[in-house]
């Protein structure tokens, strides 16, 4: 896997205000009574000038249609959009195939039941729509996001006709990263006792704000502690500590997300003779570890070199590298099977 400079994931349809390159510009539409969604049109020259910023691709699937982004319309009358009552998942695209789609969909279904979001779409139908976006944007290697936004809740709804749940799918280039990463530490970053702990909702402010604060101090990501002072996760990754040849990671009752990469590691690590154990961890356990790594859909496994000014001796360490290679093999096998099935 290529290793380079890290660019973190951006929240849904959130773009920084940018200096204007010559040629076609990123265009923000005006909000009116029937507010058109933000429009972004960037020429190839503009992309070069904005090198380092990850922009979503031009074609977006919205409900029943594949549309250029300037034709996609969202409304301030969609209460779930405004208040963050929705779900999302980020998928990795390998050779034009959405990796581990089934696992992502199962998590969406589980989370939908928790937040009472009606699931009006089938896994098979959404998968077809996802690959329609992948083909339209000619994505071989990259990532995709699937959003489900609940429209018919709360106050401040408009009298427009909206589907009960909006489906939004788009793709983007794969963010680059460097290794090892430096992690900050934040207390009260997760509330393990919350009924929404571990649910991947579109209410994402807590995560992007924590990362932004960490970036100001020169860190790449943040280790989030729960109300008991235990390690939960990072803002967009699960975390693992290696000690005496064993791998430890926080249990789900820490408030962490049930990450797809995390789940796969539980299955494949024993094949290499490596035990992955769910165990309550505290900051001191990370500081004393032989290796620490984080995992996520867009980053696979990345070694951690520092946590809150505490240096980790080896990053990436031998077990981190072993598991990352094992994961790469798993991904390649999955994609090969999917492509073979599609050709029949």
What does this molecule look like?
The chain is an alpha+beta fold. The protein has 2 domains: 58-172, D-amino Acid Aminotransferase, Chain A, domain 1; 181-330, Alpha-Beta Barrel (D-amino Acid Aminotransferase, Chain A, domain 2), CATH 3.20.10. It has helices at residues 44-49, 79-83, 101-115, 123-136, 205-216, 260-268, 283-287, 318-342; strands at residues 26-27, 39-40, 59-62, 65-68, 86-94, 97-98, 142-150, 165-172, 181-186, 221-225, 231-234, 238-243, 246-249, 276-278, 291-296, 300-307, 310-311. The strands form 3 sheets. Strands 9, 10, 11, 12, 13, 14, 15, 16 and 17 form a 9-stranded mixed β-sheet that branches. The chain has a 6-stranded antiparallel β-sheet with strand order 4-3-8-7-5-6. β15 (291-296) and β16 (300-307) form a beta hairpin. It is globular. Residues 1-52 have low confidence and may be disordered.
User: Main β-sheet: number of strands, strand sense, barrel status?
Assistant: 9 strands, mixed
CATH architecture of the largest domain: Alpha-Beta Barrel
Structural class: alpha+beta
**Residue-averaged pLDDT, rounded?**
86
Anisotropy-based shape:
globular
Number of strands: 17
Question: Fraction of residues in helices?
Answer: 25-40%
SSE pattern: EEHEEHEEHHEEEHEEEEHEHEEEH
Poorly predicted runs of 5 or more residues: 1-52
CATH-wise, what's the superfamily of the largest domain?
A: D-amino Acid Aminotransferase, subunit A, domain 2
Count of the separate structural domains = 2
| Straight-line distance between termini | 29 Å
Any idea of the CATH class of the largest domain? Answer: Alpha Beta
The fraction of residues assigned to DSSP E strands is: 15-25%
CATH topology of the largest domain: D-amino Acid Aminotransferase, Chain A, domain 2
């Amino acid at each position: 896997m290529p290793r380079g400079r890290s660019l973190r994931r951006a929240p849904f349809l959130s773009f920084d205000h940018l200096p204007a390159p010559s040629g076609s510009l990123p265009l923000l539409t005006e909000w009116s009574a029937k507010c058109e969604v933000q429009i972004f049109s960037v020429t190839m020259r503009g992309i070069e000038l904005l090198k380092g910023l990850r922009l979503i691709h031009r074609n977006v699937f919205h409900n029943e249609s594949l549309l250029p982004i300037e034709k996609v319309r969202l409304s301030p009358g969609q209460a779930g959009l405004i208040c963050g009552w929705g779900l999302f998942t980020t998928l990795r695209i390998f050779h034009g195939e959405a990796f581990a789609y089934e696992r992502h969909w199962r998590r969406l279904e589980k989370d939908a039941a928790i937040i009472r979001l009606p699931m009006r779409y089938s896994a098979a139908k959404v998968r077809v729509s996802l690959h329609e976006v992948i083909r339209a944007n000619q994505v071989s290697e990259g990532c995709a996001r699937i959003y489900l936004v609940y429209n018919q809740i709360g106050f401040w709804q408009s009298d427009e006709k909206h589907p009960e749940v909006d489906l939004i799918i788009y793709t983007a280039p794969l963010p680059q990263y460097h290794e090892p990463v430096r992690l900050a530490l934040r207390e009260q970053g997760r509330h393990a006792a919350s009924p929404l702990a571990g649910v991947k909702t579109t209410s994402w402010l807590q995560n992007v704000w924590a990362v932004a604060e960490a970036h100001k101090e020169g860190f790449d990501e943040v280790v989030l502690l729960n109300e008991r002072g235990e390690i939960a996760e990072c803002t967009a990754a699960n975390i693992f500590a290696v000690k005496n040849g064993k791998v430890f990671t926080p249990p789900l009752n820490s408030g962490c997300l049930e990450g797809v990469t995390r789940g796969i590691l539980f299955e494949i690590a024993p094949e290499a003779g490596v035990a992955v154990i769910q165990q309550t961890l505290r900051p001191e356990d990370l500081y004393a570890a032989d290796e620490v790594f984080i995992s996520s859909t867009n980053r696979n496994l990345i070694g951690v070199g520092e946590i809150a000014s505490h240096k980790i001796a080896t990053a990436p360490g031998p077990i981190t590298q072993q598991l990352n290679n094992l994961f790469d093999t798993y991904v390649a096998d999955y994609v090969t099977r999917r492509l073979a099935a599609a050709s029949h």
